[in-house]
Every structure is written in structure tokens, then in C-alpha cells.
């Protein structure tokens, strides 16, 4: 019997029927929503990026979720393989964490990504059902005469029209998908923030910031150790700014600020 194909993708939010029954190297963070996307697509096994693990181990939260479903999963150390860049993870990455189902197939921490993927090809076809789990979009602050503050667990939930002129707090990493400049966020936002995913290899986790200077859009990341990646409300409640772009710096923002203080500063600047 032929073994399953190994496929690469820069974000697991773009899976389709062509990813069913494959061993997937997906460059999304290893949180629960990414794991759910992989399960919904019917993969045999998946390798994600650990996003430097971060607060409450959110960057690898998907491993336990998939273990409960009986689906083998592993993560690549973000310091060895660029988040949002599956080809880099496949070529250079080293495995940081595996769940028990993956370990039973020979996946281990320290393994090269492709060696892990080869081991996971022995996984049986998975026929389970992923329980519901959806990323959320919500209003964090709305005051008359001030820009709205919108929370989006994923940058994919930003609405080009509805969010024009708004401040958007995302739970997404600050990387560019596949390193592509056209994969940032829609133009027209007043400001946007991301999770820095521990920054990682080649500064991948914060690459969107400099690109957003060209729009220009105020942009910043919160430190992965202060807010759960994939969770905009966690960033809003507890996030501490780790990096800012030049547009944000000109607006008076700086690393070390609480995210809510960053938002206040952006609004103050917009009022002038």
C-alpha cells in the first residue's frame, strides 16, 4: 500500500480536499485552532511551528487537542524553522515537541523536520471528527468620536471595509506567509498588532512590521511570553509590546508598553 504524500503549506487556514490523508507540514503556530483546521481537513498527521511555545504553552496547545483525537502531531522549534514559511521549516527545522501518537511512530524531539514527516507517513488514515472550534472576532472598545478597537483571533478575520480606520488587535503571528509582501494585512487600518511568536529564526515572527511602514500603518507585536498566540483577548488583557515599526515609533509607541497603553497612545495621536 502506498504511503501518504508529504505536503507543505504556509498556513493551515487554506486547506482543502487536496490535503486529505496527507502528512502535512504546516507553518502556522501550533495552537488549538491550527490543529482543528488540520483535523477538519482529514490529514493523517501534521507538523506545525511551536511559535516559541509562549504563554500558557499556547504555541503547542494543538498537540494535546490532536492527541485526544488520536491524530499524530509535532511542532518545529521556531528558532530553527521560520514560522509562516513551510519550505524553510521542511529544509532547516528541528522538532521541538511531539504528542504520544506521533512518538509511537518514531517522531522525537531533535529530529529533522523531514525525518519526522517520513516517520509520520506510517500513521493510519484518520477518520475521526474534529469538535467545533472557531476563531473569534469582537469589538474591544467603541467610543463616540474615537477609532474602534477590534479583536481578531486571526488576521484572516480582518475586514477590509468594516475595519478601515480601526485599530485591530490580532492573535496572529507577525510573519509574512511564505515571506510574501502581499500577505500582510489589508491597507487602510489605523493600527494593527500581532503576537511576535518569540521572534524566531531570521526575525520571522515580526516581519510584517517593516512592510506596514510602507502603507503606512502603525504596527506592533506583543511578546509571546505575555499573551497566548491565537488569542486576541489575551493580547488585549495582558500583552506587553515587544517590537514596533517606525510608523508606530513616530506616534509615540515603544517596546515595554502595555498593549492598552499602546492603543491609548495611537488614539491620542490620531486626535491631534
Annotation keywords:
272 residues; alpha/beta; 2 domains; six-stranded mixed beta sheet; five-stranded mixed beta sheet; 20% strand; elongated
Number of helices: 9
Bin the helical content.
Answer: 25-40%
**End-to-end gap:** 68 Å
Tally of strands: 11
Overall description:
It is a single chain. The chain is an alpha/beta fold and 272 residues long. It folds into two domains: 6-120, no CATH class; 137-271, no CATH class. It has helices at 32-41, 61-69, 86-92, 100-103, 113-120, 208-213, 232-238, 246-250, 259-271, and strands at 6-9, 23-29, 45-49, 73-76, 95-98, 137-141, 149-152, 167-173, 191-195, 218-222, 241-244. β6 (137-141) and β7 (149-152) form a beta hairpin. The model has no long low-confidence stretch (mean pLDDT 95).
Short synopsis of the structure:
The protein is an alpha/beta fold. Helix content is 25%, strand content 20%. It is elongated and about 65 Å long.
Q: What's the topology here?
A:
Blueprint: E1 6-9, E2 23-29, H1 32-41, E3 45-49, H2 61-69, E4 73-76, H3 86-92, E5 95-98, H4 100-103, H5 113-120, E6 137-141, E7 149-152, E8 167-173, E9 191-195, H6 208-213, E10 218-222, H7 232-238, E11 241-244, H8 246-250, H9 259-271
Parallel strand pairs: 1-2, 2-3, 3-4, 7-8, 8-9, 9-10
Antiparallel strand pairs: 4-5, 6-7, 10-11
Amino acid at each position: 500500500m502506498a504511503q501518504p504524500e508529504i505536503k507543505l503549506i504556509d498556513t493551515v487556514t487554506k486547506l482543502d480536499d487536496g490535503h486529505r490523508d496527507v502528512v502535512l507540514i504546516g507553518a502556522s503556530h501550533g495552537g488549538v485552532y491550527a490543529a482543528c483546521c488540520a483535523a477538519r481537513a482529514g490529514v493523517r498527521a501534521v507538523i506545525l511551528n511551536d511559535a516559541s511555545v509562549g504563554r500558557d504553552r499556547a504555541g503547542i496547545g494543538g498537540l494535546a487537542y490532536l492527541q485526544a483525537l488520536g491524530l499524530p502531531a509535532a511542532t518545529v522549534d521556531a528558532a530553527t524553522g521560520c514560522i509562516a514559511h513551510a519550505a524553510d521549516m521542511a529544509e532547516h527545522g528541528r522538532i521541538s515537541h511531539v504528542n504520544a501518537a506521533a512518538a509511537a511512530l518514531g517522531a522525537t524531539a531533535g529530529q529533522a523536520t523531514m525525518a519526522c514527516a517520513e516517520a509520520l507517513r506510517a500513521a493510519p488514515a484518520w477518520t475521526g471528527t474534529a469538535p467545533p472550534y472557531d476563531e473569534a472576532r469582537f469589538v474591544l472598545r467603541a467610543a463616540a468620536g474615537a477609532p474602534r478597537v477590534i479583536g481578531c483571533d486571526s488576521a484572516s478575520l480582518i475586514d477590509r471595509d468594516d475595519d478601515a480606520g480601526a485599530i485591530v488587535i490580532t492573535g496572529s503571528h507577525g510573519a509574512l506567509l511564505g515571506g510574501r509582501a502581499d500577505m500582510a494585512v489589508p491597507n487602510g487600518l489605523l493600527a494593527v498588532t500581532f503576537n511576535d511568536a518569540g521572534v524566531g529564526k531570521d526575525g520571522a515572527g515580526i516581519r510584517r512590521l517593516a512592510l506596514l511602514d510602507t502603507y503606512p500603518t502603525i504596527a506592533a507585536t506583543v511578546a509571546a511570553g505575555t499573551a497566548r498566540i491565537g488569542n486576541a483577548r489575551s493580547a488585549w488583557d495582558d500583552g506587553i509590546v515587544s517590537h514596533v515599526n517606525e510608523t508606530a515609533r513616530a506616534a509615540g509607541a515603544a517596546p515595554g508598553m502595555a498593549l492598552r497603553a499602546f492603543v491609548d497612545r495611537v488614539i491620542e495621536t490620531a486626535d491631534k
